[in-house]
């Protein structure tokens, strides 16, 4: 059974990134299934830190982008989610290529959600693991 409560298409998800940090960093949503959302980000000069490797902040942006969008797609109309906390463990340096992130729910509650996001290099090695906690709120227009 799918966790998604809103209609999703990769074209629609990617269109939602226009004129945002997500677009600027080159993050693209590439797949979703009944229980996860996947996206990629290039590892190049615009996502590097001064030593020429993937910036930890860019990794966190990818993780939060995937978890936040996923969270908002699995609440019903009239609800939305905002980030409360994110942590990240940076496990391996990456200097070039494409990093792939997969967001999966740990907890989908009525008032909070917790997501696990794993970032991997092109060889399937973990680059970063992150946990994102989201608050589930009611849209004031739907009260």
Molecular structure report:
- This protein is of the alpha+beta class and 143 residues long.
- The protein contains three helices and six strands.
- The protein has a six-stranded antiparallel sheet with strand order 1-2-4-5-6-3.
- Strand 1 and strand 2 form a beta hairpin.
Topology of helices and strands:
Blueprint: H1 10-15, H2 21-25, E1 28-33, E2 36-43, H3 56-73, E3 79-90, E4 97-108, E5 112-120, E6 126-138
Antiparallel strand pairs: 1-2, 2-4, 3-6, 4-5, 5-6
What descriptors fit this protein?
143 residues; alpha+beta; six-stranded antiparallel sheet; 3 helices; 6 strands; 20% helix; globular
Strand arrangement across the biggest beta sheet: 1-2-4-5-6-3
Secondary structure: helix percent: 10-25%
What is the ordering of alpha helices and beta strands?
A: HHEEHEEEE
- If you compute it from the alpha carbons, what radius of gyration comes out, rounded to the nearest whole angstrom? 15 Å
Structural class: alpha+beta
Q: What general form does the structure show?
A: globular
Please describe the biggest sheet, giving its number of strands, its sense, and whether it closes into a barrel: 6 strands, antiparallel
Quaternary structure classification: single chain
The N- and C-terminal alpha carbons lie at a distance of 28 Å
Strand content: 35-45%
Q: Uncertain spans, ≥5 residues at pLDDT below 50? A: none
Question: How many helices does DSSP assign?
Answer: 3
